Amino acid sequence: MYIVVSVVILISITMGLVRAYRGPTLYDRVMAANMIGTLTVLMVSVLGFLTGRPEFLDIALVYVLISFVSTIAVLRVSANRYGTARDDATGSAQE
Amino acid sequence: MEHLINIVLLGLLMLAGFAIVRTKSLLAVAMLTSIYSLLSASLFVVLDAVDVALTEAAIGAGISTILMLAAIALTSDEEKAPRHTPLLPLFVVIATGAALIYGTLDMPRFGDPAAPAHRHVAPTYLQDTPTAIGIPNVVTSVLASYRSYDTLGEVTVIFTAGTGVLALLGFRPRRRNTEDTGRKKLVILRVVAKLFFPLILLFALYVLFHGDYGPGGGFQAGVIFATGFILYALAFGLSNSQQLIPHQLLYVMAAAGVLIYGLVGIASMLLGGKFLEYQVLANDPVTGQHVGILLIETGVAITVAAVVLIIYYGFVSRRPAPGDI
Questions:
Q1: DSSP string spanning chain A?
Q2: Bridge partners of B25?
């Protein structure tokens, strides 16, 4: 059961990696990275139960709490640089 | 089954490495490196290195990507074409790689219990930890008690790194109200940040105090603390996070963590033990170990959190225009 789930998660991670590499836009890559983050949380939890070590859930929790911070950082940089979120930022966001 | 997962994860790591090399847009590279670290953390989990996985989760997924992005925000996000032909570096890399692979031929088989690394001091640590130190997590007992000199050295290295970044980048205070003026529309981000900020700090405390029993400890806790404050800075701007945790306070904290660590050592000397011999810190040797480990882990966490934030502030405060990261 857990094995089937891990295989499915690994396949999804592979597809996400392909999307992150091929792009074409930054947002595809951001979505792919975010998805791989979520899948890693699942993967770590499933592995914990697969190997009978549920304390792995601590690591999954760390991911849940902080993996989205880097996604926000990417979006802030691209918004500041390309002004795609210029309604949100100050007028001089487009540099 | 675990071998299959290992092989697939290693293959994905290789693919991610090639993708990083071939991608020219540095923002995409930052995303790909965060994917790389997510994958390697999964690999560490499969290999049963839970503490390492937690470190990779805390540093790779959050801090290192954020610092990379902070550096990109100061420069360009396109990779420049190399000015030299890559033939000589390629040759060096291939030669080094071949030498390393040749070196692995003499290594003991993966997971071999008779390997020299598993026969030197590891059996003593595994045998003595439950009775002498009394904590379930052997990694913490090795890191914080048996090898506490090493860890003191590592904390000092982190402190030195923070000092070095401070000397190079410094901190440029901005005039107040030069930012955050037109930012009222970051509603979703701010609500989410407000929700997550206390949870992240709480979890950092859990990782710090639970390091004796489960994966975690001072290093990971410090990084998670810093990530919480960075999330706050991303959502509310640098001047607001400056009010929350001013950079002068960070300088004091970075030094205070190392100082706590050293003072624990001196206290144990004054109480009649050796440097960092925790047994003398309490009437009962096992309790003494607990107290000592908790104190030095707290010191480590304070220094790590402060240094990570010093580096982040150093990068972000150099941005001339409003707008953070």
A1: -HHHHHHHHHHHHHHHHHHHHH-SSHHHHHHHHHHHHHHHHHHHHHHHHHTT-GGGHHHHHHHHHHHHHHHHHHHHHHHHHH-TTTTTS-GGG--
A2: B78
Please tell me the distance in Å from B267's CA to the nearest CA on chain A: 33
Question: Tens of pLDDT along A15-53?
Answer: 998 988 887 888 888 888 889 888 988 888 888 887 777
Domains identified in chain A, total number: 1
Closest CA of chain B from A63, distance in Å: 6
Q: For residue A6, tell me if it sits in a domain.
A: yes
Minimal CA separation from A83 to chain B, in Å: 11
Q: Do B234 and A76 touch (CB under 8 A)?
A: yes
Interface size A-B, in CB pairs within 8 Å, comes to: 187
pLDDT tens per residue, range B224-279 = 999 999 998 888 888 888 888 888 899 999 999 999 999 988 988 888 888 888 88
H helical segments located in chain B: 2-22, 26-46, 50-58, 65-74, 87-104, 122-128, 138-141, 148-169, 187-209, 218-236, 238-244, 247-270, 285-316
- What the block records as the tokens of B281 is 């810190």
Closest A-chain CA to B6: A10
The reported pTM is 0.85
Residue A53: which domain range? 2-83
> Using CB atoms, which residue from B27, B62, B179 is nearest to A74?
B27
If you average pLDDT over residues B183-194, what whole number do you get? 80
Query: Taking CB atoms and an 8 Å limit, are A59 and B45 in contact across chains?
Result: yes
Q: B8 in contact with A at a CB cutoff of 8 Å?
A: yes
Complex ipTM value: 0.83
Whether A51 is covered by a domain: the verdict is: yes
